[in-house]
Amino acid sequence: MKVSFTRFFKILASCLHLIFLGLIVTSICILYANSNFGRGITWIQSESYIQSDIFYNQLQSDILAIFDYARLRDAFETEGELDMDKEILTINYGPNAETDYTLHDIIEMGESYGYFLQEDWSISVISSNDTPIQEDPVLVEYKSYDPDPELTEPGQAYAKMKDLCYEALSNFSRYCYVYYNIVSEPSNISFQLTCANDNDMISRDTIVYTNVNNPSWEKIKHMGLYAEYRADSLRIETNMSQIPDYIQELAADTEFYDQTFQHFIISVDTNFPYPDRYTKEASGYESMRDWTIRGLLMMSGGCLGCVLTLLYLISASGYQTRDRSHVRLYPVDRISAEACVLLFFSLGAIGCYIGQVVGIRLLHLVVSQSSWYYAERLLIYVIMYLIALLCFFSLLRRYKADTLWQGSWVRRGLGELTAYFTQENSSHTAAYSYIAFVALNITCACSTIYLLFDLEPVSHQIFFFALILAWAMLDMVSFYYVIKKARQNEKIFQAISNIASGDISYCVNVKEFSGKQEIIADHINHIGENLDSALQEKVKSERFKADLITNVSHDLKTPLTSIINYVDLIKREHIQSEKVQGYLEVLEQKSQRLKTLTEDLVEASKASSGNIKLEISDIDFVELVYQTNGEFEEKFAGRHLELISNLPNQSILIEADGRRLWRVLENLYNNAFKYAMSHSRIYVDMIQEEDTVVFTIKNISEHPLNISSEELTERFVRGDVSRTTEGSGLGLSIAQSLTQLQNGTFTIIIDGDLFKACVAFPVKKMADSGNPSENVLE
Q1: Residue 304 in contact with residue 266, Cβ under 8 Å?
Q2: Spatial distance between the Cα atoms of 762 and 747, rounded to a whole number of angstroms
Q3: What's the predicted TM-score (pTM) here?
Q4: What pLDDT, in 10s, does the model give residues 59-70?
Q5: 148 CB-near residues (< 8 Å, 6+ apart)
Q6: Is 330 helix (H, G, I), strand (E, B) or coil?
Q7: What CA–CA distance (Å, rounded) separates 83 from 75?
Q8: For the chain, give me the number of helices (H) and strands (E)?
Q9: What is the pLDDT of residue 227?
Q10: Rounded to a whole number, what is the largest CA-CA distance in the chain?
């Protein structure tokens, strides 16, 4: 029974807390719906309706409408009566094509555009779902409500009929508001606007606009509030708490059309005997006062109830029995405190998102559009409060169970940090130094601030300046130390960069370093020395391999030459046996291939080691490619390969060895001849990019290129893995080495079965020598 009894009270307190929270939300809605929202509560006792902004805003709106009525009366009336057949607009659609529109026509036309006059004479715009009709501007000849417009540009005389219709209806709406609410019907306001007739300069008759017959203005003034302004006066005579200064501006700015303003007076009967807007607003204002008092009482009660229920829940949270001997933890209470906060923060974010997607749309169904913004914010705040409340009680239960700190990530991190600093490690020096530096700075700062406010004794002044000096020296020494270490690190970085860029002989002066930087500098020097030794060994090994290849190739030349010569001598004996002749042909082909392979080996060895003497001269690269095309055109035709070249029309000179450059092109063309797909095209292009000329040859491989471009330039590597074609696998390697020896770049690009080789050389100069192909033909 004890357990159920305690739980019952906690559930009851939770429900009451939610009820009181709802009461607060309701009171906020009531207070916000009040037009005096944000003005405090003093207005409840000290202000009446006729002193409120609501009253003066309505009065200002009516005065503006009265001046508009005076301006528009002749536009819509005939002999003092509203005339629905009066011409309002005259439109010129072309030569002899003028059309007059009456007030009745304007109203019907407005309805076709979606403009409807409401009972309060406001205009309701109802948009149509149909595609809007595109209208051309028309020439406006006459407007009854603006008979003498001031046009500064020719285009101002044109307008669209839709806009003209809305403009005419807006003016008619202003006229009807005054005529039906103030002039023709009993009203709590009385007014008279007097103007002089400018058309009658002799008698200067006056035109009066008023809603009072035979008025006694002195009597009317004493019935309530009034304001009076004359053209020859500098101020407004009034007994209102807020002086309507805008009347002077209206009198000066309103265009009365052949009339001059003389006098205006308006009075409000504060007894409100007639049922007009002022009577309704006065009643609503008193009702608003009552509801404000109710809202304040509801908020006070809600806040008090929330505080009391929250205090009870705080004291009872986690306990299951009255003796409070055991704290119950829920599954969410067993994770770390930081994870709990992150979890509820995520739930709050999700709740706010759902509130925006679902809750706000439901609010829009019951809340007016003008209140959407505050209603949406209130909903989000309520969701955030409820989520924060759940998080708070979870942390509270941990606190009561003494697990808030035990399972905290912060505690675990501090423990690991403490363990880290208690271990022997040389990297702790920087951490300890920084902590000591911060501690000393904080101490100096606090001492300086303390002494700054107590400089009366001379000893304090001396100690103050001594402390400032010591503080400055400490920071200067620390700054010097940091700069020194930074310079040492910069030198170490520079040394590593030099070694990484290839300068393995680079060394640093170890004496310029101290501490760990000295050890690192010594290691860098040893790295450079070891790399240099390894490089020397590699160069020695490469040289040995090159010499071995050269010697073996040279030793093979002598017997190979004898074989070739003896094969030639046997062929001269004119042996009749066709079988023997076939053997001789095979022997001759294979010996020639072996000779070519031997020569390629020697050339590849020399090219890779740089042991080649180059004869650099000016070479017309374009002409050399044209010559190469001519050499291989017939050979390509034997495999049904079509050579398509796109070469410049002018010569391009480069500095290269003509024989070695020819070998580069020959190897590339032979590679295309061997490995290109039959009945395909070989493309040869040459373009000049600023100071560099790029030669490109590309073809579709007959065999799949399941190999990288880097591997293709290695020795004895062929794109034809099955080795069904003849080749040594040295052609591209030789071409790359020879190109690089002549200060060029050699690049291979593989895209699927597309093989593309690019050879680039710096251009020496441009020479306009006509079409190089013509020179070749000659």
Answers
A1: no
A2: 15
A3: 0.47
A4: 999 999 999 898
A5: 257
A6: coil
A7: 9
A8: 21, 20
A9: 92
A10: 155
Mean pLDDT over 660-686 rounds to 89
d(CA 30, CA 375) in angstroms, rounded, equals 12
Q: In the structure encoding, which two tokens stand for residue 658, read together?
A: 């003509």
Whether the CB-CB separation of 248 and 236 falls below 8 Å is answered with yes
3-state SS track over 697-739? EEEEECCCCCCCHHHHCCCCCCCCCCCCCCCCCCHHHHHHHHH
Query: What phi, psi does 501 have (nearest 5°)?
Result: -80, -5
Q: Mention every residue, 6+ apart, whose C-beta is less than 8 A from residue 412.
A: none
Residue with tokens 């291989």: 632
> In a 3-state reduction of DSSP, which class is residue 441?
helix
Do 624 and 661 touch, CB atoms closer than 8 A?
Answer: yes
Q: Summarize pLDDT for 539-598 with one digit per residue, the tens.
A: 677 666 666 666 666 666 667 677 777 677 777 777 777 777 777 777 776 676 666 666
Contact 635, 673 (CB under 8 A): yes
Within a 10 A sphere around the Cβ of 242, how many other Cβ atoms? 16
- Secondary structure of residue 507 in the 3-state scheme: coil
Count of CB atoms situated within 10 Å of the CB of 713: 19
pLDDT digits (tens, 9 = 90+) for 485-529: 888 888 888 888 887 877 777 788 888 888 778 888 888 887 777
194: amino acid identity, one letter: T
Structure-token pair, residue 1: 């029974």
Q: Cβ distance 486 to 494 under 8 Å?
A: no
Q: How far is CA 576 from the centre of its chain?
A: 89
pLDDT at 2: 46
3-state secondary structure of 483: helix
Position of tokens 């004493």? 222
- Residue positions counted in the chain: 778
């190739």: which residue's tokens? 553
80: left (phi over 0), alpha (psi -120 to 50) or beta: left
Q: Residue 360: how many CB atoms within 10 A of its CB?
A: 16
The C-alpha angle 646, 632, 614, rounded to 5 degrees, equals 85
The 3-state DSSP class for residue 758 equals: strand
| DSSP 3-state of 746 | strand
d(CA 516, CA 636): 67
